[in-house]
Amino acid sequence: MKTKNDLKEMSAKDLNSEIAEMKKQLFELRMSATTGSVKDSSQFRKLRVAIAQAMTFCGQKKITKEV
Fold it and tell me: Could you point out which of 9, 38, 40, 51 has its C-alpha 20 to 30 Å from the C-alpha of 25?
């Protein structure tokens, strides 16, 4: 996972691809949870927070681009 500073420096296009990748990871994590193979359940929250941060930075870039 990228840090906040890494996400801030990314372009909107890169952020969108990063968001898609993290959503895919979250889906795979959920699927592995159904089989019971997830050891650390805090991964769910960490991924959701990272997705939210990336989406926030992406939205900020879109707003500044419009103005």
Answer: 9
Residue 51, domain extent: 4-66
This prediction has a pTM of: 0.86
In angstroms, the CA 2 to CA 25 distance is: 13
Query: If pLDDT is split at 50, 70 and 90, which confidence band does 65 have?
Result: confident
State the sign of the Cα–Cα–Cα–Cα dihedral 56, 9, 3, 28: positive
- Answer yes or no: are the C-beta atoms of 51 and 22 closer than 8 Å: yes
* Residue 18 CB partners (closer than 8 Å, separation 6+): 2, 7, 10, 54
CATH number of the domain where residue 59 is located: 1.10.287
Contact 5, 58 (CB under 8 A): no
